[in-house]
Amino acid sequence: MNWDWSAVDAFLPRLADGLLVTAQALALSALLAFGLGLVWAVAQRSGPALVRGPVAVFTEFIRNTPLLVQLFFLYYVLPEWGLTLSAMVTGVVGLGLHYSTYTAEVYRAGIEGVPRGQWEAATALSLSRGRTWGVVILPQAIRRVAPALGNYVIAMLKDTPMLFVVGVMEMLGEARQFSSETFLTVEAVTVVGIAFILLSCPASFLMRTLERRLAR
Amino acid sequence: MSEITPGLWEILLDGVWITLQLTFLSAALAAAVAFVTGLARLNRLRIVRFAAGVYFEVFRGTSALILMFWLFFVLPLGLGWQLEPMWAAVLALGLSYGAYGSEVVRGAVAAVPRGQHEAGVALNLPPGQRLWRIVLPQAWPEMIPPFNNLLIELLKGTALVSVMGVSDLAFGAALVRNATGQSAPVYTVILLVYFVIAFAMTRGMRVLERRARAGAGEGPPRRAALSPRRLFAPRRRAAAAAAASSGGERR
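Structure tokens for the assembled complex are given below, as produced in the milestone run.
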């Protein structure tokens, strides 16, 4: 294998650009996934029956279909409906929406783990529904599931390369462009692969430590 | 703007077939990798545990799409020989989902009570039989629900091969989109197809889980597990009866 270190040198600035885009996409879609997931979880727990059913069907559908196809759907179909989004927004919405159906399950487990007495205490204090959720249930539920949510951020990180199919210039997109200009595919793709391992291994190690600490 | 013609439906149907093939072949490879790596991570020898751990961290740490890129574009340039696209895809999916699966195997085997291993030692069973007759039958039912999740993830992961030009369902959708000039119908159809496949797989795995639980003497039919009939009846029949009787009891 002919490995060319100067190619790595040439690629590193591009990798840094890509890393920045990856980080932005990840941060935004993680926020979206956390927010929307909470909406799904609360809607399925205390929404009216008319909301609960469709939310259950929708989340089940999104969770069981490929993110890649969902990205294509957003990228090609929304403009046909008159809504044109930038590459970044399409990617963030796709990734965030997809993972919101996972975080919804995590929140649901957390909410179910809150003892019944807490609900009853909130009723006894005649707290409004909003306050019951906001100051009693959710703070306890979310603390419990924080590591699980963190694990999904790592999973999302590993799915960000998919965003290049809609034209987001994250790390893999940069590698593709670099290799089509210079034909130095070996170095570019390998460097991106190593970058992902270097990012996700410490992150998952951190999450495992956090889990162990919280479990104690 | 035009309808999806019968010829285009055929493209999608061929795509479904490729997607199913990819799913089953890579699931088979992933299962093999998961068992070997998962058991190696519980091996007595530190070096074996370490090697399996490195494999697990590397393949779990990287993204399946990047691994696929690597196998498709780097391996041919670096080594001078090229894999058939289909097999490169199976290899990439099998190796990365096998790494996830190894954690499932490791966890389930580690959760079998120590006394069971010791009983095997006390009965003077060789290690292979201990594993095959005592540990795995008890660990297996615990593995099935997480394996189901991984199988669905794998099914979703197969869509990535369309980026590499393997003509799976997602690739067929792109062709149909180009031919008809419309995106909404074809992408809606293939999302539904993926969903139906995932749904069928989940159902199948649930049946498998019930059988496995009955086979290990667990689950709803507790009494049946202790009765002499259970001990002498062929395993399959007992499992089928358990699956039938447990339908109402399981939530």
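The radius of gyration of chain B is 22 Å. The first helix of chain B runs from residue 6 to 40. Further analysis is deferred to the final report.
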